[in-house]
Amino acid sequence: MTVFGGFEMPLWYRGISEEHMAVRNRAGLFDVTHMGRLEIVGKDASKFLDFILPSDLSKIQNGREFYSTICTENAGIVDDTMTFRFDEHRYIMVGNAVNREKDFQWLKKNSGGFEVEVNDFSDKIAMFALQGPRAQTVLQKSCSSPLSQLKRFAHSSASIAGVDCIVSRTGYTGEDGFEIMIPNCSLDDPSKAERVWQTILSDGEAEGLIPCGLGARDTLRLEAGYSLFGQDIDESTNPFEADLGRLISFDKVDYVGRGSLLLAKEQVRRIRTGLVMKNEGIPRSGCEVVKSDAPVGRVTSGTFSPILRKGVAMAYISTEFSEQGTELMVSIRGRLHEAKITKFPLYDPSAYGLKRVKA
After folding, report:
1. Helix (H) or strand (E) holding 216
2. Under CATH, domain 228-342 is a member of which superfamily?
3. Pairing state of beta strands 28-31 and 210-212?
4. Rounded distance, CA 36 to CA 29, Å?
5. Which of 26, 162, 206, 312 has a CA-to-CA distance to 283 between 20 and 30 Å?
């Protein structure tokens, strides 16, 4: 167990590698109740989010959700978030656990002039993530809605084990899966969440489902190329160097940080990319990346990949050395180890992940 985001969380149940491989090959269940959840409601809810977020929201329909970043006036990343649209006047924004209070205060601070209300109801709603190629089979056993009709980045109301829930086809592992929000379920009375958790685990036993902790969540997201706030992105990084430029729209003319983002796009000096070690060595956050004895970057996240059976990393590399396939060296405990820049995801997408080729 460890303390993370103010919650006591399991690092692992059976072991990080076993849980990692369960998600890649079968299914895993994560408790992600520690994540922040903000409700944005009111006449100007859509208009307000269009001002706060740099993404193009004009095509987001009811029942869909979208990934974006909250940026400062200087183009720094306040947080990366997933936002659920229920209708023009109601949204739920899910942010990182470490930013729960910061995100709430940021939205409140910037809500002046808008007819909108921002509510932090993080402690009144539980949240689980069921991930893996067998996730749909497992969840359908207790879910009232036909999950085969739920598209990627879509959500709907559903009953799971007789409990009213919000189910979305999203995740943080690179695999197919679902995130389940359980409203009206407080920290003081988690009985509804317990019922859903135990039912899913029981229904998934025959499919090889196991509970998973923070350790596997981290190794899975790193293999898939998903950033972790506070480690890979923060207010000192902008979306373009974080390889999140696809989220930024310059068709919009009025939103927080637009001018600075426009400049940042033209001044990218480093880029977030993947690294795979050629032989030995497990890179860790802070390890220096070297080319011809000169530093060209730094690792922000590193681990052992249970899929590749070798060390992998996420790093910021000078743009001139960031081309895929470029061979570099990583300094680990005073020794240089060979590595190669590799496009995310780091696993074979035909064998694992959302685009796997089904037999």
Report:
1. helix 214-224
2. Aminomethyltransferase beta-barrel domains (2.40.30.110)
3. parallel
4. 19
5. 26
Burial 218-246 (b: 16+ CB within 10 A, else e): bbbbbbbbbbbbeebbbeebbbbbbbbee
Environment class of 154 (CB within 10 Å of its CB; exposed 0-12, middle 13-18, buried 19+): middle
Q: Map residue 49 onto helix, strand or coil.
A: helix
Sign of the CA dihedral running 304, 310, 311, 314:
negative
Helices 16-25 and 214-224, axial angle in degrees (round to 10): 50
Q: 109 falls in which pLDDT band (50, 70, 90)? A: very high
The token pair that represents 184 in the structure block: 């009206």
Q: Which residue has the tokens 């910021």?
A: 316
Domain borders along the chain are: 228-342
Residue-wise pLDDT tens digits, 34-93:
999 999 999 999 999 999 999 999 999 999 999 999 999 999 999 999 999 999 999 999
How far, CA to CA in Å, does 328 sit from each of 304, 320, 325?
Answer: 18, 12, 9
Q: What are the residues facing 276 on neighbouring strands?
A: 312, 340
What is the C-alpha separation between 276 and 312, in angstroms, rounded?
Answer: 5
Which tokens belong to 83? 């936002």
Residue with tokens 């064998």: 351
